[in-house]
Amino acid sequence: MILYCILFSLGYAGIETIYRQLNSGEITTPGQTLITFIWTPVIIYHFSYFGTGYGIILFPINVWLCEIIFGNILYYFWNYRLWYYDDTLSYLNGTISILFFPHWFALGIMINITIYWFDYILNNR
User: Fold this and answer.
1) How many CA atoms lie within 13 Å of 62's alpha carbon, on the beta-carbon side?
2) Rounded to 5 degrees, what are φ and ψ at 24?
3) Residue 85: enclosing H or E segment and its boundaries?
4) Helix %, strand %, coil % for the chain, to 5?
5) Interatomic CA distance for residues 90 and 83, integer angstroms
6) Distance separating alpha carbons of residues 30 and 9, to the nearest angstrom
């Protein structure tokens, strides 16, 4: 599981950095990378519990749950934000945005493919 956590957190950091570079010239934060590292077991369990189809469809809810939990913990205990959504469809103190549904849906597809690819490589050496 630790291998998945490392690979997923580094993979997400790469995707997030590319996205931010294209939109604002920034990079991802170590905090977001750490949160992905911590949340990876939930992601893995999500797909094993719901399967491929429902897992992909419900994946945005998984991400929003992560953003709600960690975003509010950081804000309420340390008055610190790693992200803040400020659009017409942002909710829960700016920790989630419904406008990001397509992004999280696409990420769910990529993660689902990656999980099966890793399992194939690790089990067929």
Assistant:
1) 24
2) -145, 0
3) none
4) 80, 5, 20
5) 12
6) 10
CB atoms within 10 A of CB 7: 14
Report pTM: 0.87
**CA separation for the pair 8, 6 (Å, rounded):** 6
Q: Which residues of the chain have pLDDT under 70?
A: 125
Give one DSSP letter per residue of 8-68, joined into a string.
Answer: HHHHHHHHHHHHHHHHTS----HHHHHHHHHHHHHHHHHHHHHHHHHHHHHHHHHHHHHHH
Burial class for 93, CB neighbours closer than 10 Å (0-12, 13-18, 19+): middle
State the CB neighbour count (10 A cutoff) for residue 50.
15
pLDDT of amino acid 28: 87
Token duo for residue 53: 């189809």
- Residue 96: predicted pLDDT: 96
Q: 62: burial class by Cβ within 10 Å (0-12, 13-18, 19+)? A: buried
